[in-house]
# Entry
Amino acid sequence: MSVEKNLSPKNVADRSKKSRPKATPSRIQQNMASAKAIVDQKIVDNFIVHIAETEELKVTDLPATQVSVPLNLWLEEIDAIKSREGLIAVQIGVDEHPEDIAETLSDIDIIVLPFVNHVDGQAYSHAYKLRTRLGFKGQIRAIGDVKFDQLGFLTRVGCNAFELPDTEDLQTALRAFGEFSEVYQPSADGAKNIFSRRRAIH
Amino acid sequence: MYKYDSVDKTIVKERVAQFRDQVNRHLKGELTAADLQPLRLRNGLYMQIHAHMLRVSIPYGLINSTQMRTLARIARKYDKGYGHFTTRQNIQYNWPELADVPDILDELADVEMHAIQTSGNCIRNISSDQYAGVASDEIIDPRPYCEIIRQWSTLHPEFYWLPRKFKIAVTGATEDRAAVQFHDIGLEVVHNEAKEIGFRVYVGGGLGRTPVIGKIIKEFLPRDDILSYCDAILRVYNLHGRRDNKYKARIKILVNAMGIDAFRDEVEAEWQFQKDGDLKLDDVDFDTMAEFFPLPDYEELQEGDSRIEKWLSLDSRFKDWYNNNTVEHRQTGYRIVNISLKEHAVAPGDITSEQMDAVADIADMYSFGEIRSTHEQNLVLADVREQDLLEVWRALDAQRLATANIGSVNDMICCPGLDFCSLANASSISIAKQINEKFTDFNELYDIGEVKLKMSGCMNACGHHHVGHIGVLGVDKKGVEWYQLTVGGDASNKAELGTRLGPAIAKDKVGDAVSDILHVYREQREDDERLLDTFRRVGVEPFKERVYAEVN
# Structure
């Protein structure tokens, strides 16, 4: 994936279904499901299977259980997905754009942000946009390579659910939410800019 | 200098506790070395050839005497009795043990210091003019602006996992000593026609493997908008910067690939979303922040202390030091004193615990208890009364800190190189010694005048060789160290990248080559031209001919 290609004016403007690449290395490569999840800072059983994208994926291929679907499938078969039982959960890969589902956000219960590698921070900006300018009120769930030490900042940009690898100790990871009692800058968490706070103090 | 308030104290202390927990989890086997790596980097801790290296942040190079004594104690207690000042005004320790680092950070936090975001792919320490607040050509003190940006960028949740490191610099003077055109974002103070304060914004400058001079993205950005505009640039970079190749991941590559106009359009579109949001600053914010940087309580002094003339005529060593190592101050009766960390046979920027303690004492007695570190890897006492200069010189001289070579070819910038750094291809400290040995006659040094010699042990360019009047780059050729020379680089307002002289030179010939370049300069210079001026007039050829005539 080259920058030049990614950013040619054509690609920035044209987000039609045909132009959307599928099954890129930036998305999950196989279906995923953790045993447990952390939702609103509590450990709960997980019930979502995250479906990996393939060239041929159809709604009829999906298991009957609760799933999250790739963004492409959502855009292609929105009505079929809406008519399924359960919650509507849609994945946005790091190489996809939250703006593409702006018009359908009110139909979505959960947005899933898959991390293939936690050092790739694009999903932080996706979460921030979803919570602020796009006004998404549902659940934002980070999955994949997400661990203890990412939870604090992911929470600040708007994530409120996390699936960690099953090897991680979730009880220990809960400590991540209490590490900082002060912040300097606003994000999607309603925190105030330090400078506007100091205006009140000084 | 900046004094922490309760928010700053809380954040720094909680940050140390967080890192202590991460190190404990690692030592207990709960956090792998691979997972710890990006976390420790964001706390300034690298893994080098021999040991860990800890880089401590010194915002704007400001250090008070208490902090300096803490830096000395850390060097004694946890290291081998010395520290190393870097080209970004920070200090590095080369030998700390991982298990000790949380304690070191705690000791630093006690004196309002930290190592947050001194490495890793995040927004680094904001840098500025080393003479900020005292320079005679200053339009506005840049430090309150730097500090506003530093606080906004510290532990920023969205911009903590960027494609690559990100450096911001601010200058408030007519002469740019902060090299803003070689930063990811450079801010240069300007007034608009209505005399309002704002910034000319440069983006996508940098050194490293692909040196690029920053491009102007905005001619005038009102000062109220600096955070929202930086926020927009960072979001565009976070979403569009390359992550597939670390050598193509800096924002300069993105700006070049898109073109500055397309990049500007993206940033402007992004900016519209939060231009008037919570990041918008108010006049009172600048005033409040300026109060954090009070000017010292200067005395009303007469111009030109008569004793100076006498001292200058009586002692030639004092005279050399005065002429080379002190600089005019904006306040009458005061001078800026440079402390040379470029003593012959000492690695550039190195300082012992004893010297640090002595500098703290001298600062307490003669310079309001404050010290600064510089991009040139020296220290500065910014506010010395002229009447105290003789005593300050004697005190520094007793600590071997008064080598009268500031601005000369011996005052070179040098990365740690192959002696310490796991990235390096070649030694740089030994080359510094070789060049030092060529110029032991200080009269010759003074005759040559201002030469900024900058040296890096590999193409990552920590020694900023691209912008040295003379640049030296270490390269590896089949396991042998060779050196590539450039001439004519300039980090000031007239930003220029150095011109390559020719093929790389063998290790034992680098001193000769530098000597040749300076011979050509002395033969060809007109009037009071500096090396840089002569080079601009005559071009690279005469230098090239001389250097390679002898090599061949």
Remarks:
- Chain A has eight helices and eight strands.
- Chain A touches chain B through 46 residues (CB under 8 Å).
- Helices of chain A lie at 3-7, 9-13, 71-76, 78-82, 122-131, 148-156, 170-173, 194-201.
